[in-house]
Structure formats: C-alpha cells, structure tokens
Specification:
Elements lengths: L4 E5 L9 H7 L5 H9 L3 E3 L2 E2 L11 E5 L16 E5 L3 E6 L16 H11 L7 E2 L8 E7 L2 H12 L4 E9 L6 E5 L2 E3 L8 E3 L8 E10 L2 E8 L6 H8 L22 E9 L6 E5 L4 H9 L5
Parallel strand pairs: 8-15
Antiparallel strand pairs: 1-4, 2-3, 2-4, 5-6, 6-8, 7-8, 9-14, 9-15, 10-13, 11-12, 13-14, 15-16
Length: about 300
C-alpha cells in the first residue's frame, strides 16, 4: 500500500453520516489541508473522487492521498546534513552550530532548508521545508522536520499538548548555587533600540517555563541540563541571562567568549509520537566536538 495514503473503512456502528464527518471525527485534518486535498482531487471513496457531502454506507473505503503537488522556491544546495532518522512523515536532523535553519531576505543560501531541499530532489521528491521546532543558528542539536502538511499539522498538535519533550545541555557563566529548579518567567519583545531580541516581561510577555538541573560545576562555569515546557523564541538564553548566568559564548544575551565561537547550547534529546502510528520515538545526540573539547578542558570546581 502507498505509504502516502490514509485509509478509513466505514463500519456499520460508526456515527458517521457524510464523508465530511470522517474528517471531523476519524481523520483529523486542518481546514487548509482539507481544502488543498479537495482542489487536487485527492479524496476518494471506493476508488472514486468524491465530494465531502457524499452520504456514507457501511463498508465504504475512504482514501486520502497526501502526495500533494508542491513547489519549493528554496535554492537546493549540496550541504552535508546529519539525518538521524527519516520515515514517510518526518525527519530528525542533528543540526551543527553555525548553520541557520531557514533563508532570510539577505541570506538565501547556506541553510538547513537549502540542504534538505537538495536531499529531497536527489530522491526525486518535491517538498516544502516544514520545520517543527527551530534552533538558533549558534545552537546545535536535534530538530524535527515534517515531510508533508499532514505530518506538520499532526506534530503541531503534539506540541500544543506538550507531547514533544526536548532536553538541552548548556554551559553557563558563574556557579549556579542550587541543584535545580524551574524558571517561570514570561518572555516578550525587547524594548526598541535594545541589542537583544527578547526579554523577561512580567507585564506583557507570554508564559515561559524552563526546568534545569546542575550536571557539573567548573571554575567560573556550570553545566546545566534543561527541559523546555514552553517554546518561546530564545527562551533558554533569555531565562539564564536574566538569572545572571548567561550561556558561555552567547554574544546576544551575554558576551562573546574566547573559549567557543557560539553559544554553548545543545539540544541533545527529543521524544515524541510518530504522527501516524503514534509509536513513541526518542533520540539523543552528543554535543558538537568544540563543546565537548571545552568541557574536557575546564578545571573542575574544587
């Protein structure tokens, strides 16, 4: 069976009257995706393209072809990419520090989006780049990328239900005295003219919760394990800077470092459910070599 096909067989005990009820109660699709599927005639009942006002009968076989015609405007580039996992719905990427995720107006090349667009073209696939979570250019580690609008939508719902768990390692400046805790501080846009992009904003910011635990203390530095409960822009960097422990090498929320040329922040673990089978999946990757080298050379706290 084509792995891009969703199938549902109508049972005589189903509380479904019309085809549109299948998409409300059995195969949940966004309005935008359902509209595209209709336009491209990707919805069939018993092998025939069918309108959603069709009255269902027991035994009807509803099929949805997720292989939509899509055209990407991202420039394909042969950039090495570390693919940790790939199935028909999504990919798990180990992004190196220094690689931006998506092109911007003044930089249309040299990003993860360019690399994956090339990867798909080499396989004869035309896909849009749909990151499910994002990492800053200087942050390394695991990223999820949806391979279809359906997969991206399904993973977005998992994010809203906090079913996607992400853990990070960060080397911060100074000695963190407590063994662990939670940083529950809202984050909003920084004031105009500020060098930072985001800041703690107790008046107008959006809720943001970060949990942390001390892994090891060094002289003048502390290695933390962190878990995101929300996903605000620059959340870990803003929270740690606000506590007086900016991430080593974070020029935006702290200062540049002679020890490492990017923020020492690594997204090392992620867990979620496969969007179609709901099978639990979990992946872990070690920090990049420069961060491992830094950790191996720092003198421990005596």
């Amino acid at each position: 069976m084509d792995k891009n096909i969703l199938t549902y067989v109508v049972d005589e005990d189903d509380d479904l009257v019309y085809l549109r009820d299948v998409f409300r109660k059995r195969i949940t699709l966004s309005h935008a995706l359902l509209a595209r599927l209709k336009v491209q005639e990707k919805i069939e009942v018993n092998g025939q393209v069918t309108r959603t006002n069709y009255r269902l009968q027991p035994g009807d076989i509803v099929t949805v072809d997720l292989d939509l015609d899509e055209t990407s405007h991202i420039i394909p580039q042969n950039i090495p990419v570390d693919i940790i996992y790939e199935d028909d719905d999504l990919m798990v990427i180990n992004k190196p520090p220094g690689l931006a995720v998506h092109p911007v107006k003044d930089k249309m090349e040299g990003t993860l989006a360019n690399a994956l667009t090339y990867h798909w073209l080499q396989k004869g696939e035309s896909r849009l780049f749909r990151p499910i979570n994002r990492l800053d250019k200087g942050t390394s580690g695991l990223m999820l990328v949806g391979k279809s609008q359906y997969a991206h939508q399904a993973m977005f719902h998992q994010q809203k239900k906090r079913l996607i768990q992400r853990s990070y390692l960060a080397l911060v400046e100074g000695e963190v005295k407590t063994e662990g805790g939670s940083i529950d501080l809202p984050i909003g846009h920084a004031a105009p003219g500020s060098n930072a992009c985001r800041t703690v904003d107790t008046a107008n910011g959006k809720p943001a919760l970060t949990r942390f635990k001390v892994i090891k203390r060094f002289q003048n530095y502390t290695l933390l394990a962190l878990q995101l409960e929300t996903g605000r822009t620059h959340q870990i960097r803003v929270h740690l800077s606000h506590l007086g422990h900016p991430i080593c090498g974070d020029a935006l929320y702290g200062s540049q470092s002679l020890l490492i040329n990017h923020q020492a922040l690594h997204a090392g673990q992620i867990s979620f459910q496969q969007p179609r089978s709901l099978q639990p999946l979990e992946f872990q990757v070690a920090p990049p070599d420069d961060m491992l080298h830094l950790l191996s050379t720092l003198p421990p706290l005596v």
